[in-house]
Amino acid sequence: MSETALRLLIFVAVFVLVALCEHAWPRRPRRQTRARRWGINLGLLGIDILAQRLTLGAAALGMALYAQAQGWGLFNVQSLPVWLTAVAGFLLLDLAIYLQHRLFHVVPLFWRLHLVHHTDLDLDLSSGFRFHPLEILLSLLYKVALVAVLGISPLVVLVFEATLSAAALFNHANLRLPLRLDAWLRWLLVTPDMHRVHHSVIPAETNSNYGFFISLWDRLLGSYREQPSAGHQGMTIGLHEYQREDRLGLMQLVLIPFRAPESEVSNPARSEDRR
């Protein structure tokens, strides 16, 4: 089975499982209809896949295979046990994604791309693939460079990519986990409640909980926030400047990075705050 087919199989299986769990145990009521949001988010996913296929494709895996054949990278020049390089490679890739996420919140140019992800007015598993295609391509280039420098094995790259896709569906899910289970899981993994804080309109909360799979990086690097200040039922999701559903269509999202930000005057959430 090819790398693409395997990743698609895992993605579909996790998508169906998480979607069924969301339906059975929802965490929050929806602001928008599922059909509209899923249409937009799936549309972005389609554009992202097309952009990758027309440009870099499976470049991270390709680089892993090439680096292994050429003996490139730190792990390929060290005599370390295979299991140790595999674990270290996976952890370093996950840490790198955490650092990339923080960088995309700090650097204005990168934020213009990443804010597309934060314009979602609801949060469910479809939010896990609501990314601008240019952000996806930059992320892929970043991973290619890391794989080349570290010499991460092709198998580890394949496992990591599949894990990252599955984790994005899970931690964006509108899923109500038992509180004790959530508290236990988030010592190691990013749970839906933990990541939901990151999608709050409150900037201090938006700039927290950057992890996608392993939660330890947020705890170790000082970006962990346990709960949203308004609670999971009372919090507002999205960005203050983008609270109008009629301005968040598919092509509008694609063009957002190239346009001036929405004015505060047009934002009904802030207008309400002034009354």
UniProtKB/TrEMBL annotation:
Domain of life: Bacteria
Residue ranges annotated for the Fatty acid hydroxylase domain, each copy included: 87-223
Predominant location: membrane
Ranges annotated as spanning the membrane: 6-25, 45-68, 80-99, 140-160
InterPro entries reported in the protein's UniProt record: Fatty_acid_hydroxylase (IPR006694), Sterol_desaturase/TMEM195 (IPR051689)
Cellular localization per UniProt: Endomembrane system
Pfam family of the protein (one): FA_hydroxylase
Membrane topology category: Multi-pass membrane protein
Keyword Oxidoreductase annotated: yes
UniProt entry keywords in alphabetical sequence: Lipid metabolism, Membrane, Oxidoreductase, Transmembrane, Transmembrane helix
Stated name of the protein: Sterol desaturase family protein
Organism annotation: Marinobacterium rhizophilum
